[in-house]
Amino acid sequence: MAILVNSETKVCVQGITGKAGTLHTGTMLEYGTKIVSGVRPGAEGEEVLGIPVFNRVSTAVEETGANSSIIFVPAAMAKGAALEAINAGIKLIVIIPEHVPLHDELEIMQAAEDSGIVVVGPNTPGLIAPSLKCKIGFVPNKYYIPGSVGVMARSGTLTYEIVSRLTLAGIGQSTAIGVGGDPVIGSRFPDLIKKFEADPETKVILLIGEVGGTQEEEAAALVADGKIKKPVVAYIAGFSAPPGKRLGHAGAIISGSQGTMESKLKSFQKAGIAVAKTPSEVLDLVKQKLR
Asked: 61 and 165 share a domain?
């Protein structure tokens, strides 16, 4: 079991002939991801690493049964690629590029919501389900092993550090998802925490957040209201973040009293969520919750 992906997940790589698209198609294939097609206008009939390339996503869906896509195109082209995938009936879209224009992001998310399609990103390393040997993105799979900790995070590199500690201790993961660091993203913490709650493989939910935005507070509210019964452990980056500063991600902006470290910690305290002060403390807290 996992969330967002399953044994029937078949991936189409949009932008497969580009440098990043080709590179990460190779690493995804090596891990075991079922990549069935690629898309690059003007390249139909070609193959990349044995994967057939089509001009349009709709053709890729018709010919190969693709039901998920990952987008490796420049940010300015992400909207066109995402809307094409939505119109073709793709059910899960992972948008890799960062700094997608804000109005483009809004249009993508509205179209996805109207069509009942799940979007991860933009500005995400993707997701991985170790038990299925499926990753959609460039997550370094050497840090992940099958297990029962569901991970959702805003920082890719911080996630790799924390998850590697879990893995070295023999604690595996059910699914790990980078939600994305742009201001407007698809799947957010409050969406994913409900999916982890419903996933029988997940026993503990690990939330790796950062200052800015209200995702963490919204997820904590679900726990406080009793809608999430599984234990939750959290780590928030940015204890010394000054108000009004952007820290790394475009979405990591503190505005007024919302999105501050104080606001997030208060929400977690109210919900009874265990919070690690350093990445190294996460391991001990997760161990406690798994007992």
From this structure: no
**Widest distance between CA atoms in the chain:** 57
**Is residue 105 located within the same domain as residue 144?**
no
Cβ–Cβ under 8 Å, residues 270 and 281: no
Same domain? For 271 and 171 the reply is yes
- In angstroms, the CA 233 to CA 236 distance is 10
DSSP assignment letter at 201: T
Each residue's pLDDT tens digit, 121-179 = 999 999 999 999 999 999 999 999 999 999 999 999 999 999 999 999 999 999 999 99
Contact present, 37 and 62 (Cβ < 8 Å): no
pTM listed for this prediction: 0.94
Please give the C-alpha separations between residue 185 and each of 4, 111, 191, in angstroms, as whole numbers. 16, 13, 11
Name the active-site residue from 24, 99, 103, 249.
Answer: 249
72, 95 Cβ separation under 8 angstroms:
no
Same domain (yes/no): 284, 197: yes
Does 281 fall in a domain? yes
Torsions phi, psi of 174, nearest 5?
-80, -60
Shared domain for 234 and 153, answered yes or no, is yes
One domain for residues 56 and 150: no
Structural domains in the chain (count): 2
The verdict on whether 103 is a catalytic residue reads no
